[in-house]
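Sample A.
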Amino acid sequence: MSDFRMSDDIQADLALAYAGFNLDVALRLPGRGVSVLLGPSGCGKTTVLRALAGLSRARGRVTVGSACWQDDAQRTWMPVHRRPIGMVFQEASLFAHLSVRSNLDYGLQRTPAGERHVTRDDAVALLGIAPLMDRRPEHLSGGERQRVAIARALLTSPRLLLMDEPLSALDTARKAEVLPFLERLNAQTGVPVVYVTHALDEAARLADHLVLMEAGRVRATGTPAALFSRLDLPLSHLDEAAAVVEATVAAHEPAYGQSRLDVHGLPLWAGLSQACVGQRVRVRVLARDVSVALSRAADSSIVNILPATVASLRDDGPDTTTLQLTLAAPEAQHNGALLLARLTRRSCEQLKLVPGQAVFAQVKGVALMG
């Protein structure tokens, strides 16, 4: 596959108002990797995506690298058919009367031969759809249809791939089928992706850069590891509040069905991973699966007991407190990964927990993503 990479940022200053809703965002997205717009329904995620595509007319300015797609001050407007984008929607929107091969050829023919960066063989291999080429959409599962739709979007050789809740219409099994292909998409094509979702698991697993949206505004931007663990953001208030931790596979122990991960020099045991030793992985640790102790228990059934520091605390009512913990080996000279712990207020008061205090995080569950 051609090494098509864009290092320049995607910038969008957009404003739009209609009955009961106001959008006002200033986005600075990296020109590589997957940027995820996360937020509840009605917060403006899809409106932003449609404005980037030119499907909705918001006021403002949009640039992708050195190319200006919109600048109202200069009366510049590039229509949607001239913007080098690929789009994938909630529904696959394939041509029902055409085979998979013909659907892909439609995408390929939209780009002159001299401007193509992705071949049909590239897209077919990347999305694993070789056995489907002679079928029509009615004979495909939901996950297969969506993989074909992604391949067709790639075959336009886009400078930017826009994805609007592409997994929301799929059941859990079909969603699990498509997610690994989405993870490989950017790494193997180099095409930057802007991905809209309200699903926490998708954002935690896919995002290189996360944009948290709320009521037509950008609430926060950063890495999933940073944003999921912030006590001042709504993500940490949810019942499924969890930290996202980057780790490296250190060893496998198939006899116990476990893999040992390395997190800034600390061992973290998780279920057996398919990743190779040395490979980077991402894990999700629920706040309710983390407890705190002042000393390391020598006779506990919990395997993951890690040195940490209380970074901050937040009272969540009369009975619950949420802690942000920084994992770090005692000799570490840098900040480690962040965890959340949800405890009772009684436990916090009995342990006299305060910011800066050295503790041990007892992690009962670690979910590998991918």
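Sample B.
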Amino acid sequence: MVLVSGGMDSATVLALARATGFAAHALSFRYGQRHAVELEAASQVARALGAATHRVEDVDLRSLGGSALTADLPVPKDRSGGEIGHGIPPTYVPARNTLFLAYALAWAEVIPARDIFLGVNALDYSGYPDCRPEFLAAFERVANLGTRLGVEEGSFRIHAPLLHLTKAEIITRGRDLGVDFGLTRTCYDPDAAGAACGRCDACALRLRAFAQLGLTDPAPYQRRAGG
């Protein structure tokens, strides 16, 4: 089971799962996010990387709000690296990873699939509490305590293979595995055509990583950072 958002991190995780020999079942969510263009990207990524199946489930988090991604709140733009790395940003969606992992766990029990992959990494868990290694370890324990398959076999594992990689390292790993990053979408505030803003935190981190590697990001942008 691989959570696939349509961004470059989850695409790399899907490629890693496939390279490890798993028949990967991709799971995405339409949760009321303003950047729903990522769902088409998720579909393309799942096909390109040979996912066995791909489900897109509806979970209405916009009705709850509380995030710049699911409510009429401004998405932060043009922030420095220090600002991005400090505190929990307004793009945090309340309990999102808890909800997504719980849904993935339910489907995994049905398949059955004992391994759940997701693309959290070191640049995220400093800001998002549900991307920290402590959270992942706790959820794995919950999975094995609160499900029939877990109780009978104690076999659920939560995999976060990008956890301690930088964005540049993730790009390098993905390229080595044949990921087409031109299919992926990361921006929190794209335009109606799906072009990235080039100014939100997600765009800033992504563009900086490609620049560090001397590469041009193949995703479409309204404007490049500094452009």
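B remarks: Residues 115 and 215 are 33 Å apart (CA to CA). DSSP finds nine helices and five strands in the chain.
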